[in-house]
């Protein structure tokens, strides 16, 4: 919308709603996405991410609220919006039977490029996305990671002002995922705003400057990734013991060493401790090292150890625990396998 001072907004929604039958897939979403950044929308399967993206990309009509893209209304000024956005995700734009080059040249021609310009751009993109060697292969013979990369290449034949990437790395191996991340960074460096949906906290953390966490069609947290981490903890220490009989003792030692809640996982030899972001004079790695040496000093044998970011489940647990003020503060924490987010 107009008249605001401050940074230009690529996306602004107010009370955005989409209803399927009696399912409020998107249930009153307010978003402000500054231009020139990667904005992460983090949520589990069925949260409403794709539905929201489709409304913003003018592919679905909202049932309530408003959405503007670069100040243009996605319903009343849909053509103007379409001229500035591009979408990649679960929507196949490439033809399986054509080669990488054939696809990109064809799409370039459809976008109005001359044959020569389409060829040049195609070659550039295939090279930049590490697909030069696969350029003359049919897409149906591409790996999952190559397929995701050619999808993104196809969506930036014309450099869009706003690119929607709907779960671009779901199901990819770590190496392919890193390649996609590099591409996202390169796209943003050229001035494109990216709205990225993901189920992975670490992906949002690596790429996005701001993150909205959504579930059941609602935004349950929003902020810079620093703010989000400060509220949910910056990491998790996952431990597997040799002897399940040592677990109660390990739990006590961990609590003492880290001064945080420790979760007993389903697996009788496993424990998880969330490292607090705000309590860290010590970084997560140092806190973990301290925990390990305390365990060793107590004669507890640790078979396996991992330091990771909190899982999406843990993020939701932390966010919803914080919201539900009546929740038992220090009671035995349960390990949520599903997110018990109140509607
Ligand atoms: N075309 C549709 N018709 C009916 N229900 C739908 C349709 N698309 C999505 N939904 C429902 O809306 C909710 C949100 O789905 P979706 O936006 O695809 O979530 P996400 O992308 O976060 O996984 C889900 O409950 C899903 O089953
Ligand atoms: Mg989706």
Automatic annotation (TrEMBL):
InterPro entries: AAA+_ATPase, ABC_transporter-like_ATP-bd, ABC_transporter-like_CS, ABC_transporter_ATP-binding, DrrA, P-loop_NTPase. It is found in: Cell membrane. Pfam families: ABC_tran (PF00005). Transmembrane segments: none annotated. It is a peripheral membrane protein. GO terms for molecular function: ATP binding. SMART domains: AAA (SM00382). The keyword Cell membrane applies. It comes from the Bacteria. Its main location: membrane. Keywords: Antibiotic resistance, ATP-binding, Cell membrane, Membrane, Nucleotide-binding, Translocase, Transport. Residues 11-241 form the ABC transporter domain. NCBIfam families: drrA (TIGR01188). Belongs to the ABC transporter superfamily. Drug exporter-1 (DrugE1) (TC 3.A.1.105) family. This is Daunorubicin resistance protein DrrA family ABC transporter ATP-binding protein. The lineage of its organism: Bacteria, Bacillati, Actinomycetota, Actinomycetes, Kitasatosporales.
């Amino acid at each position: 919308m107009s008249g605001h001072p401050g940074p230009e907004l690529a996306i602004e929604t107010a009370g955005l709603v989409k209803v399927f039958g009696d399912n409020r897939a998107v249930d009153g979403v307010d978003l402000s996405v500054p231009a020139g950044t990667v904005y992460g929308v983090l949520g589990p399967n069925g949260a409403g991410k794709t539905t929201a993206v489709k409304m913003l990309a003018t592919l679905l009509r909202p049932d309530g609220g408003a959405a503007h893209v670069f100040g243009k209304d996605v319903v009343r000024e849909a053509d103007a919006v379409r001229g500035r956005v591009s979408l990649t995700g679960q929507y196949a734009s490439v033809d399986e039977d054509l080669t990488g080059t054939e696809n990109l040249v064809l799409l370039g021609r459809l976008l109005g490029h001359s044959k020569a310009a389409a060829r040049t751009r195609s070659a550039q993109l295939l090279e930049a996305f590490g697909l030069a060697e696969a350029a003359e292969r049919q897409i149906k013979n591409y790996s999952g990671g190559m397929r995701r990369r050619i999808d993104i290449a196809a969506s930036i034949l014309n450099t869009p002002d706003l690119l929607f990437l709907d779960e671009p790395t779901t199901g990819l191996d770590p190496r392919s995922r890193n390649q996609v991340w590099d591409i996202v960074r390169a796209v943003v460096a050229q001035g494109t705003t990216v709205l990225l949906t993901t189920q992975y906290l670490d992906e949002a953390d690596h790429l996005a400057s701001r993150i909205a966490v959504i579930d059941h069609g609602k935004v349950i947290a929003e902020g810079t990734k620093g703010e989000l981490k400060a509220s949910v903890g910056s990491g998790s220490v996952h431990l597997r013991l040799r002897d399940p009989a040592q677990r109660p003792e390990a739990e006590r030692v961990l609590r003492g060493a880290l001064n945080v809640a420790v979760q007993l996982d389903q697996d009788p030899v496993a424990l998880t401790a969330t490292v607090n972001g705000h309590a860290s004079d010590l970084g997560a790695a140092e806190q973990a090292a301290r925990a390990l040496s305390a365990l060793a000093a107590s004669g507890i044998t640790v078979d396996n150890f991992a330091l990771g970011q909190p899982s999406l489940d843990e993020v939701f647990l932390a966010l919803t625990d914080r919201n539900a003020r009546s929740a038992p503060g220090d009671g035995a924490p349960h390990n949520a396998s599903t997110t018990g987010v109140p509607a």
